[in-house]
Write a structure and sequence with these properties.
Mean pLDDT: 85
Largest sheet: 5 strands, antiparallel
Shape: rod-shaped
Radius of gyration: 28 Å
Distance between the termini: 78 Å
Number of domains: 2
Structural class: alpha+beta
Number of helices: 9
Strand order of the largest sheet: 2-1-5-4-3
Length: about 220
């Protein structure tokens, strides 16, 4: 704000504070919280209104030029306030979407089953602690891993990839599943799609209970 006002005082043309402040508010809507967005929208709108509606102050920021009338300035103030309102609304909407995404990620991380979230290209975006334990990898090892490299059956990788891509193209029925393989052993998996601009596949790995029967006490 200080930089814009100092520049506006130094340059010899008419006031450029309103358009520069509009750019600033639109940028803020991506970067700050809704509460701060409202605060700065009010502050910026008040400054713009003072400059445009006060001929003497406008003359200071316009190299000594005085407007013959301020009716057009009233419309400019109205337009700036509309931009400020839109910026607040967009910031609030973006914040709600981020909160929903964080809630979904937190839910996946807390699930008792191993869960892997991946994109249409197979890149892994998220997996919970149970999935990391099952895969025997840590987070850094899996950052750039592909779903197919970790879980696709070696002898039927092409079929697995085709089925994987069909989930994004054709959708998922309630009975759909994915045949996977882990360390040479088949593993069952149930799938679901997270609908968004970039859909993601949620794969829930279902370990075979029979693998743990040797841990049960004998009678």
């Amino acid at each position: 704000m200080g930089t814009v006002l100092a520049f506006d005082l130094a340059e010899p043309f008419r006031s450029v504070t309103p358009p520069l402040f509009s750019i600033g508010l639109l940028l803020f809507s991506f970067l700050i919280s809704p509460r701060w967005m409202i605060f700065w929208a009010v502050v910026y709108s008040a400054i713009v209104a003072c400059i445009l509606l006060n001929p003497a102050l406008y003359s200071v920021f316009s190299g000594g030029w005085s407007p013959p009338e301020i009716l057009s300035h009233k419309f400019r103030v109205l337009g700036f306030c509309s931009t400020a309102f839109f910026s607040c609304l967009f910031c609030s909407t973006l914040d709600r979407l981020r909160r929903k995404r964080d809630m979904l990620d937190n839910l996946i991380l807390r699930m008792p089953l191993p869960v892997v979230v991946s994109g249409i290209d197979g890149e892994i975006h998220l997996l919970n602690e149970r999935a990391r334990q099952l895969l025997g990898r840590n987070s850094s090892d899996l950052q750039k891993s592909l779903f197919f490299d970790l879980l696709a059956p070696k002898k039927a990788q092409g079929k697995c990839i085709a089925a994987y891509l069909n989930f994004f193209k054709l959708g998922i029925d309630t009975e759909d599943s994915l045949d996977l393989e882990l360390a040479g052993r088949p593993i069952r998996a149930e799938v679901a799609i997270i609908e968004s601009n970039s859909p993601k596949l949620v794969t829930m790995l279902l370990p075979d209970d029979s693998e743990h029967t040797h841990d049960k006490p004998r009678t």
